[in-house]
Model the fold of this input.
Amino acid sequence: MLRPLRFDNEIDPGPVQIQARKVHFDLTGIPLHWIPGHPVASTMVNLFNVVLPAAEHWFVATFNEALPYVRDAKLADDMRGFIGQEATHAETHDQVMEQFLTGHGVDYAPMLTLVEHVFTKMLAPKPSTDPQRRLSDLCDRLWLIAAIEHYTAVLGDFVLNCNWEDFDADPTLTDLFRWHGSEEVEHRSVAHDVAVYFQDSYFSRVRAMSIAAAAVFVFFQRGTWDLVKRDPTIDVSWWRMNRLRMRDSKLGLLPKFATMFGIQTLTYCRPSYSPEEMGSTAQAVAYLASSPAARAAHL
Done:
């Protein structure tokens, strides 16, 4: 299948080897509100450093569980690349959480406890002596990962094309999220392909998206509010926080909820949906080749 081109001057890079990349981020001296004058946008993006590690550790564990069942050599290779990238993402955001958020005195423990409970308890493999039940449970988790990965691709495409620089956003954190977003765009088809390989079911896809959409929305809202109300430098109500969030979305600093949870959710539920429609592989690969953090890791 030909990959759709996103930009007029885009050149299809052809088959891409999905692999983890070494990166290095110097977080010294970066302010907590790293998009100056936009504390809600800064906080909502900072939230990903709390939510992502637990989610990505769960992705890795689930794919490692699934990998022995895969007989397609190309898909198995893509899965190994996906596992490597997600493990690196989790490790990097763990470091940012500990060094950057803890360093600024952010109390993220309640949100972290909730997130870890969801991924280590609620979404843990269901114990059963019946092999068919275990496989069915694995398929459910693979489809949930595919649905979540649709949103990470949407977010990856957003950060690659947003205008944070126009608002003097810190370049190191901008690079952090663009590096991560680029790899999400690069491997955007893998989770979907794996889920289809195990259980090619439109019903399972839509069911998983209904769960993922609700969960991601709640994490956005509850998580951002939890961090905002614990930030002594921000004194806003829940309604004011959401008005600022909508303002920042209109300015291009955050994705619009109507697009993310409306248009993009419906796009995923279209029977003919393909992950290749979301984002540009050429743009992602080009950014990964020029990322300051990737270059710094090899110095």
Summary: The radius of gyration is 19 Å.
